[in-house]
Design a protein that fits this description.
single chain; alpha+beta; 10 helices; 15% strand; disordered N terminus; DNA-binding
Length: 776
DNA sequence: GAGTTTGAAACT
DNA sequence: CAGTTTCAAACTC
């Protein structure tokens, strides 16, 4: 094994100065030429984010700088008692030469730090080879000093002893690392050795950052590595305890075969509280689109800018957005999100995606003006608050897309750049809305064919484009899973899914997912609703009153819901309202989950592909791709995946005693029984509906009490209540029609709305009845 | 609800 | 790849 060598990691933010190209870290010691220039123009691989309880691993960490050698580990250790954050980079290069000014470039092209070498010895270090023990040296910075002091522990070139080197930094550049918090990157394939500074070949450099007097509780960031072009997963799980909002980025693969959703194989996770303030970050992805969806309930109700101008959220080069308390400017709420820095737009430090709430014309115009003045010649687009959404590309081209306007939902966002590679559309996510997406090949396709289709997309949908205009790029609509967010401490989740140049299929716990049609019909987009799992077929089409597709809760006890035994996991969904124990199929255990996904995919690359595909004969013939292996059930029980999916066994099956074929009398008998049962259910449903309608026809002023004097709850079905109910039903009908739902779904939505109305009436009646009883 | 059966998934 | 074990859902009582 090569000798260990360590370097210094420096993570800085230049939050308040988007125009800054670099930060100079000047060491006031004898280190000759000891000026380190951190090119923030290249800091695109990192997200600066709150540092709450940051711990995690960075996999596939590898430098590409030839003079850096192999980086084994990047460790951040906050365990020192002086509230200093330390970052350590462990390098296995045998060469102990200097590396001043060297940029540590991760495999995704991002820069995580600069390295300093040959710094002056300040003190000795007690570094050990303990694998998990980071270098722990810090400089006791003066608490009264407005400057941030960094301490570098490095080898004295003359004595081979570790040393600490203070570095004066511009405070504005260090609003990043929160004291006492750790960010750990581990390269899983790397040697476990952490630091061996004793040897002349193993200089150790550690940086400690003191934030005294600097940190703003609303401006705390960390550097977050993002996806690697390799299949491996890079991510940093973040404890949700203090960071109830998460954004999950999943690597986007372009040019590979179409993939169905894998369960959120998070590449990076970022989280942040969305209480009064929040920070969001876009994580660039090395080879694909990057996308952010912000929870509207939090962001767009509260969301406006803190540091930036009123009513705006800037996403600057440091890739962090801080959203503070609700602000409005002329009644307009805005969220400006920059396009991913991955786009590598040169020269433009600030780019925006603008989200504009409905407003009056003049106000909108004012915002546009403001935006134009903000974006330095690289304005990507603007949107108006009116129903037609205008996308203005940098080239001056405009396109208008009419999107549904829903109350209580933020405006959709459509971002595009005519010169860059990422195009995206963010539809504001609503609560309990999950979506299925699919895929026009270009933004122009959206323009030409997607105008009406877009209106079908549910709030929260994100459409991604992998870029490479005109060369087979694809859009992927990415679901948000707000219902799960709600469960998981109201975390907001954004996921970037693997994408192909042809089609992208994303399966998520999508409510209504079978209801959304692909934007581009010419793309072989597979719907997640198309039998991605046989076990869900029975419930397809059923929609909860919330609009959610009901999903059977799992009961896993031993698998942690991280194996394909678990239906949730197998379907690429997080567990939600399940009965499982020790569940790790959630955002909190994103790292474990990602590993499990990877493991499953290693065993079977098709593990997350639909089990039920189309047969060879015709499009209408479904068949089990793998076939069943039943031995005792005769393939006439739900043990059999074919039978459960209501399809015949095929020659792909290896079952014994199969009775699940067309002419099978047993099967026909079962089918008849099943049909009869279904008819009974339908009759019962119809009866209930009829009863409901009769209830709604109760006279508006019925008797107020029974013969015994008990007051009747239907007293409250007054004409006003009936009218209000009808209004609700009409509104729901119009809404569903406007969303261009299929007629069946429209009917269902109206009926469900009626159910909700009834529940409200009953509740109100009962409450009032209780009050009356109490009063009596 | 407890226990049994079943077959897919995981493991060896 | 085959045999075995594990697992959770389906099923039975």
């Amino acid at each position: 094994m090569p000798a260990q060598r360590t370097g210094i990691g420096v993570v800085n933010l230049h939050e308040n100065d988007p125009s800054a190209q670099s930060i100079e870290i000047n060491s006031n010691n004898s280190f000759s030429g000891n000026t380190i220039s951190v090119d923030y123009g290249q800091l695109k691989g990192h997200v600066l984010n709150p540092l709450d309880n940051l711990e995690g691993t960075l996999e596939n960490l590898e430098p590409t700088e030839s003079n850096l050698g192999n980086v084994d580990q990047v460790l951040v250790d906050s365990s020192d008692s002086n509230n200093h954050t330390q970052i350590q980079i462990v390098n296995s290069t045998a060469d102990s030469g200097h590396s001043e000014g060297t940029l540590l470039r991760l495999s995704d092209g991002s820069v995580v730090s600069s390295l300093i070498d040959n710094s002056q010895i300040v003190s000795a270090s007690s570094l050990t080879t303990a694998s998990s023990q980071a270098v722990k040296r810090q400089l006791n910075a003066s608490s009264s000093s407005p400057m941030v002091t960094k301490v570098i522990i490095t080898k004295n070139p003359n004595s081979s002893q570790p040393q600490a080197v203070p570095i004066q930094l511009n405070p504005s550049s260090l609003q990043s690392l929160q004291q006492g918090q750790a960010l750990t990157f581990n390269q899983t394939m790397a040697p476990a050795v952490s630091v061996v500074p004793q040897s002349a070949q193993t200089p150790t450099k550690t940086i400690t950052i003191s934030q005294q007097g600097i940190m703003s509780p609303q401006k705390q960031y960390f550097a977050l590595p993002v996806s690697s072009p390799k299949p491996g997963i890079t991510k940093i799980p973040i404890s949700p305890a203090k960071t109830p909002t998460k954004i999950t980025m999943i690597p986007v693969t372009v040019g590979k075969s179409p993939q169905r959703i894998a369960p959120a194989s998070g590449v990076s996770v970022l989280s942040k509280s969305l209480s009064d303030s929040a920070t969001y970050t876009a994580v660039p992805v090395s080879s694909g689109p990057t996308m952010i969806t912000l929870s509207p309930s939090k962001v767009f109700k509260q969301g406006t800018v803190v540091q930036q101008r009123p009513g705006q959220i800037q996403f600057q080069q440091n890739q962090a957005i801080t959203i503070n308390k609700p602000q409005t400017q002329g009644g307009v709420r805005q969220v400006a999100i920059p396009l991913s820095s991955m786009q590598q737009i040169q020269g433009s430090k600030v780019q925006y995606v603008r989200l504009v709430a409905p407003t009056q014309q003049g106000q909108t115009a004012g915002i546009k003006t403001s935006l134009a003045s903000l974006v330095q010649g690289k304005q990507i687009f603007t949107t108006s608050g009116a129903h037609p959404l205008t996308i203005q590309q940098a080239g001056g081209q405009q396109m208008k897309i009419t999107l549904p306007v829903q109350s209580n939902h933020p405006r959709p966002v459509i971002a595009s750049s005519n010169t860059q590679t990422v195009q995206r559309i963010l539809l504001p996510a609503g609560p309990n809305q999950l979506q299925l997406r699919a895929v026009p090949s270009t933004l122009a396709q959206i323009q030409t064919s997607g105008v009406s289709s877009l209106s079908n997309l549910p709030p929260g949908t994100t459409i991604l484009s992998s870029g490479n205009a005109g060369s087979g790029q694809g859009f992927a609509l990415v679901p948000t899973m707000l219902s799960q967010m709600a469960q998981q401490q109201q975390q907001a989740t954004v996921q970037v899914r693997p994408m192909t140049s042809q089609a992208t299929v994303i399966a998520q716990p999508l409510q209504n997912r079978q209801e959304f049609i692909p934007i581009a019909s010419n793309n072989p987009v597979l719907s997640a609703s198309v039998a991605n799992s046989t076990r869900n077929n029975n419930s397809e089409g059923a929609i909860e009153p919330t609009g959610a597709r009901p999903r059977k809760p799992c009961n896993c006890t031993k698998s942690q819901c991280l194996k394909l035994y678990c239906d949730c996991f197998a379907n690429g969904e997080f567990c939600h309202n399940c009965n499982c124990t020790n569940c790790a199929n959630n955002l909190i255990h994103e790292e474990e989950r990602s590993r499990a996904i990877k493991s499953c995919l290693d065993r079977n690359p098709m593990a997350f592909h639909p089990k039920i595909g189309k047969g060879q004969i015709g499009n209408g013939n479904r068949r089990h791709n793998k076939g069943c292996n039943c031995k005792r059930s005769g393939c006439l029980k739900n043990y059999c995946e074919c039978y459960e999916a209501k399809i015949m066994c095929s020659n792909a099956c290896k079952c014994f005693g199969c009775k699940n074929f067309e002419e099978s009398p047993e099967r026909r008998t079962l089918m008849h029984l099943a049909d009869a049962a279904e008819v009974r259910v339908q009759q019962q449903t119809a009866a209930k509906t009829k009863l409901s309608s009769q209830i709604s026809g109760v006279p508006s002023k019925p008797p107020t009490s029974t013969a015994t004097g008990e007051r009747l709850p239907y007293t409250f079905i007054t004409s006003e209540v009936a009218e209000a109910t009808c209004a609700c039903l009409l509104a729901q009908a119009e809404e569903s029609e406007r969303m261009k739902m299929p007629p069946v779904v429209q009917e269902r939505m109206v009926i469900e709305e009626f159910g909700r109305c009834l529940l409200q009436i009953i509740e109100s009646a009962n409450k009032t009845k209780e009050l009356i009883i109490f009063a009596e």
